[in-house]
Automatic annotation (TrEMBL):
<feature type="transmembrane region" description="Helical">
    <location>
        <begin position="308"/>
        <end position="326"/>
    </location>
</feature>
<keyword id="KW-0812">Transmembrane</keyword>
<dbReference type="InterPro" id="IPR020846">
    <property type="entry name" value="MFS_dom"/>
</dbReference>
<feature type="transmembrane region" description="Helical">
    <location>
        <begin position="31"/>
        <end position="51"/>
    </location>
</feature>
<feature type="transmembrane region" description="Helical">
    <location>
        <begin position="241"/>
        <end position="265"/>
    </location>
</feature>
<dbReference type="InterPro" id="IPR036259">
    <property type="entry name" value="MFS_trans_sf"/>
</dbReference>
<feature type="transmembrane region" description="Helical">
    <location>
        <begin position="332"/>
        <end position="349"/>
    </location>
</feature>
<dbReference type="InterPro" id="IPR011701">
    <property type="entry name" value="MFS"/>
</dbReference>
<keyword id="KW-0813">Transport</keyword>
<keyword id="KW-0472">Membrane</keyword>
<feature type="transmembrane region" description="Helical">
    <location>
        <begin position="189"/>
        <end position="209"/>
    </location>
</feature>
<feature type="transmembrane region" description="Helical">
    <location>
        <begin position="161"/>
        <end position="183"/>
    </location>
</feature>
<keyword id="KW-1133">Transmembrane helix</keyword>
<dbReference type="GO" id="GO:0022857">
    <property type="term" value="F:transmembrane transporter activity"/>
</dbReference>
<dbReference type="InterPro" id="IPR001958">
    <property type="entry name" value="Tet-R_TetA/multi-R_MdtG-like"/>
</dbReference>
<feature type="transmembrane region" description="Helical">
    <location>
        <begin position="370"/>
        <end position="391"/>
    </location>
</feature>
<feature type="transmembrane region" description="Helical">
    <location>
        <begin position="132"/>
        <end position="149"/>
    </location>
</feature>
């Protein structure tokens, strides 16, 4: 582990887990949270906007060669995930050194300009380059979470992290709808819309977003802090933090089962058309918005962060089990509310992790979390698709096409075991935090 920064030695960093929120005036704090919420929503909205049109553009550039287009589109996804993996810790470390505001604003500006490049791309390689740059610039989500940790009291962080989770859901609900409508006019129009939203948000943030990390609480910039391995090393600094990181990673990996296989599974098992699948995915996103935007705050106050974490993971086990077994489509829908409650686990785990580190490490922590999400994003699709292919190749074996959902259930049971172990006692120096229920 790298040497502790000066502010930690002064009793304001790691020796003071959780720290105090930055002294941002209340009114500006609310405006700042609104800006960060909109930033995350726009990032996710932009990703969702591409869903209906990017495959079509790739196919057009490949001359209608469907196998080649599928291969190239897979490369687009891998490139984006790799950029998130490598640059999330870079942006987190930069925000720990120079503050959150410049990193978030430059990221918004970069994303907006990049979408302009993609809208004008004359070749497939320009389009791929745009997707790579987009992955680099949109890695600011880690910094957005660090910003919220800076300006929010420890006992309220789970609720605020839940609200950012709601921004994810909102973006995924609205994005494909906007992209489909705009793409029916012109396949490049969604890129212009995404560019306009990002650039307008950057201009708005320039006037309303205060800095959240005071100079005295910043950390020096070192190579060890600004690379994936260095960021992940932070998670080994405390046994409880490492355990919670395991919970976060395993839960995120399990979460990739539906994005990886949803369309294929729903089409094969229930013979659903694109319209029904679209409504189902919208219901998934809407459930996430309701739970993470409205229920996590009261739920954490009632159960404590430990209880919310265990409740969320258990609800995920129930939801995935229903969806893996469901012989009829309407039964699959019964699992959606339980999977929505799974959002409790992600918000509570993130909040518990943030309590165990001081202000100068919040950016690095969120960068490490984003790294783990990137790794899960690289492993999950391959893992679940292979399990699905094996299940279809052996139609008589239990549990049939729902096998990937049961692999996800097994992962979540591991996450629950890790969570029980990691949250048995509160973090050192944070006796006042309500970690347990």
């Amino acid at each position: 582990m790298p040497p502790a920064p000066k502010d930690a030695e002064a009793g304001q960093g790691i020796s003071d887990p959780g720290g105090d929120p930055a002294p941002v005036p209340h009114g500006r704090r609310r405006a700042a949270f609104g800006f960060v919420f909109v930033t995350v929503a726009i990032d996710m909205l932009s990703v969702g906007i591409f869903v209906p049109v990017l495959p079509r553009l790739v196919a057009d550039f490949m001359g209608g060669d469907e196998p080649a287009a599928a291969t190239m589109y897979g490369l687009f996804g891998i490139a984006f995930a790799l950029m998130q993996f490598f640059f999330s810790p870079v942006q987190g470390a930069l925000s720990d050194r120079f503050g959150r505001r410049p990193v978030i604003l430059f990221s918004n500006l970069g994303v907006g300009l990049d979408y302009v490049v993609m809208a004008l791309a004359p070749t497939i390689w320009w389009l791929l380059a745009g997707r790579v740059i987009s992955g680099v610039a949109s890695a600011s989500i880690a910094t957005a979470f660090a910003y919220i940790a800076d300006v929010t009291e420890p006992e309220k962080r789970a609720a605020r992290f839940g609200m950012l989770g709601a921004a994810f859901g909102l973006g995924f609900v609205l994005g494909p709808a906007i992209g489909g409508l705009a793409g029916s006019v012109d396949p490049r129009l969604p890129f212009w819309i995404a560019a306009g939203l990002s650039l307008a948000n950057a201009a708005y943030g320039y006037f309303v977003l205060p800095e959240s990390l005071p100079p005295e609480k910043r950390a020096p910039l070192r190579l060890a802090r600004a690379n994936p391995l260095g960021a992940l090393t932070l998670l080994r600094s405390q046994p409880q933090l490492l355990g919670l990181a395991g919970v976060w990673f395993v839960s995120q990996l399990a979460h990739f089962v539906l994005p990886s296989l949803g369309v294929l599974y729903l089409t094969f098992r229930y013979d659903w058309d694109a319209r029904t699948i679209g409504f189902t995915m919208a219901a998934v996103g809407l459930g996430a918005v309701i739970v993470q935007g409205g229920l996590i705050g009261p739920g954490v106050r009632l159960l404590g962060e430990r209880g919310a974490l265990l409740l969320g993971a258990t609800a995920g086990v129930i939801g995935l089990t229903i969806q893996g077994l469901a012989p009829h489509g309407w039964m699959f829908w019964l699992g959606i509310p339980f999977n929505s409650l799974w959002g409790f686990a992600h918000a509570a785990a993130n909040s518990l992790m943030s309590r165990r580190l001081g202000p100068s490490e919040q950016g690095r922590l969120q960068g490490a979390n984003a790294c783990m999400m990137g790794i899960a994003g690289l492993i999950g699709p391959g893992l679940f698709s292979q399990v699905y292919a094996f299940a279809l190749a052996h139609p008589g074996a239990f549990p049939g096409p729902g096998a990937p959902f049961f692999v996800a259930v097994a992962l979540l049971l591991v996450a629950i075991a890790l969570a029980v172990r990691a949250t048995r006692s509160p973090p050192a120096g944070a006796a006042g935090d309500k970690v347990s229920s």
